[in-house]
Amino acid sequence: QSSLGLGFLAELIGTFCLVTVGLNNTSADYEGNSFFGLSGGLILFPIILVFDGISGAAVNPSVGMLSLVAPIH
To answer: Does residue 7 contact residue 25 with C-beta atoms inside 8 Å?
Structure first.
């Protein structure tokens, strides 16, 4: 069981990374690039591997905190 603060920090970092990649994918600078799905998957895979044990890797701080505050057994 992880602490609430560590879980929240993990969710914030994971969400920030995923949103940053998503916003860069939709930027006009990268028009015509067909690897958008690959870049999203390549960032999501390590986020899930690293943060799954800490917060469940919901990549959404509100959902991640729910699993830490009210765990379902």
So the answer is: no
